[in-house]
Amino acid sequence: MHTCYVCGKAEATVVDFRSHLQRHSVVGELTVPLKCCICKSSFSKTYNLIRHTVNYHMHGTEKSIGDAVLNTTLLLPCVSADAVAYDNHESCHSREQSVSNLLEDVRKEGTALVAGLRANSSIPYNVIPKVVDSFNQMSASLSLLFQTDMLNCLADAGLTKEVLVDVNAHLEHRVLDTSKPLDFLSSRYKQDKYFDNHPLAVCSESVSFGLEIASHSGCSKLVSESFQYVSVEKTLHSLLQNEDYVRVLLHDKCNSDIIQNYADGQCCKTDPLFSDSSKVSLQLQLFYDGLGVTNPLRGQSTLHNVSVFYFTIRNLPQLYNSCFANVHLLALCYSLDVKKYGFDPILERFVAEINRLSSLGMKGTYPIIGDCTVYAGLSQVTCDNLALNSIFGHIESFSCDFFCTICYASQTDIQKYYSEDHFQLRTIQSYNADITAQQKNGKKHHRGVKKPCKLNDIVGYHITNNWSLDIMHIVLEGIVPYELGCILYGLCDSVTSLDIEAINCEVQLFWGKMTVDKANKPLELNRVEEMGQGISPAMKAMQYGSLLKYLPLILGKFVPPSSSNVHWKLLLHLSHLVDLIFAPRFTHAMVTYLKSVISDHLHMFVDLYGSHSSVRLRPKHHLLVHLPSVILKCGPLVGMSCLRYELKNSFFKRSAHIVCNFTNICQTLAYRHQQRALYSLLSHEYVRDAPVVNATSMQCASALVFSKVFTTKFDIDPADDVCVASRLTVATITYKKGDFLAVGVNHESGDPVFGKVVSFVSPVTSDIWYVAVELLATVEFCAHVHSYSVCELKPAKHEILLLSDLIDYHPLYCHVAGFVNGTQVSYIRLPYHIFE
Fold first, then answer.
1. pLDDT above 80 for 296
2. Which CATH number describes the domain made up of 697-828?
3. CA-to-CA distance for 687 and 681, rounded, in angstroms?
């Protein structure tokens, strides 16, 4: 028997079990991970669970569907004629119901197949009807095969021709429906109609920009230029039908002493809507960016460039907002139309919806909270620097004065002042004065302001209070490569044994040993540019971040610890600065300290490289001085990073390459995205915090190296069995045996405590998975390589923890640097600054 973990119903065969799971799937009742009812294994997809069940839990004596149905008719007890007649009637009704259920299972299985194909950005929609047609043809062929075989068997059994004709006529009538079970999805039109009518589906709508005259085949006519808009209210209403989503949304971890999300910032606490604890309010974060969907090396590559608008819900923890499914589409339009008509037509729809949702809200019945009115408001807008200035109506050149959206900085001032206190901040009053002066004088801009922003019409929001800066573009793609170019040039010039070949060789050897971050391996450097030219070739943001993170460990042996090399000191200070900027949690003291670190770093950089004519502070250096205030007002900087939005763009790029039809690419991409959103909602991709363990085994508790700790913690007998695994996945992070984790903090020294993963365990009576680690001794923080020196404890000491007990969820790499006096020297580098 195979028991469903959702409803507890037992199915006799694997075929019935799969069909039962598909019935839960099509209505969105399956939760990830999918759990095996016999062992502790768990999976992210139905296919993997069924394959596991077939390989490990299906016995050879398991009966087929036909055997099961046949047995129910042969085992009827002997009773009276009236009872037999009644039972025959009931048996016929039962068989009819069974056939109907089986046919419905086939249809739902096919529906799930089609939904998965439509959600895949790598599959053209014109291929799916062909797949459905092949499915129907195979089903018709199988039905004919079974019909022929049955008639042949009956003929061999000696039935007369008249009986065979009657049976054949009866079979042809019964198998008519099974010959084409997916006929209702046989065409693109039928598929669109079926999925668009799903109660959780949210479709995009075309909104007109205006009319223009277009010529085609020698004829001119008026055509409507439009953009695709997805209703915020409909998207939120669809999301709030998910009980798990609502539960996570209401999980408030606000802490007055710790700044760890937007709700801990001053902007949220002073906002009339978000600060009202009597209301259920959603904090929306808006994102805008341009996107190229065609090959940039081909002619007219910018003709089909699109502008994309996303939004996320800041109430969700950062762990969930990093998921693609929680980045929601708002609008999609051609970049040329934005240039022609501006942002106002798009933002007008958004502003109207937000004003309505913030004042009237959405009345309805929702899981957990019941009958309630849910409100929503705009918390902040986050973009890269160019896009933010563009949507706000500011100048889009960063080589002139007044480029900053937060203050009135000039190019001269940013070279001299390294603290926010020296700059005049923009206010609502000064902004209104700038708009008045610009309109009165007829200039292109006044103090950086070109035109009013439509977002200011949102009640309770103004762009001068939009404290948001993108550290992905500012730090990883701006400051880090710029300063690394200067630092590496200086190191190669001052350290005789170091050159570009040695650097590339050491990076290659280091990543060959790496057990984490392997996907972010930096590219081989072509050359170290002159001062102020950065590094070549250009890399992705995560590659720049990985190179900076491990560079002290990679090159530490070339610079003696006692050396006073100023370039090395600047590299370590840059690493320290980036660690603080990317911290997921802050105390108020950390924010004050960050302010001084930023000022010191800018002073160090100018003092070291300012004498070179080609080296000067860039506008992105100036934006650093605002980061402490941004944290105090809107929470940690990682919450407003554009990284997750930029990664989301890959869906549209891949879809555009597959579709290859640019008649109205915005409508096509928006429709495909909303189909993907529906599939994500039904498959519970929005909430993905449960661990998935594919391969498990049962071991005796006494056989574990941490047996004493385990049996004591769970109060079990050493002879009892324990479920053990060597690999565990949560969301997109995979933990393996041999990885290292930050498990806590030593309260005496303040240093983090690390542990090496020994195994993942779960008691037989529980569904919860724990990680068993062998604790390490943290010797000290080695400033020369910006890493913690660790060593093994003797005798070994083990501890069993929940993943939620860790002070950071990233698996870490322990670098063995060599042996000193017969003792192995190992270092662990943290991804950013963390504290308990």
1. no
2. 2.30.30.490
3. 9
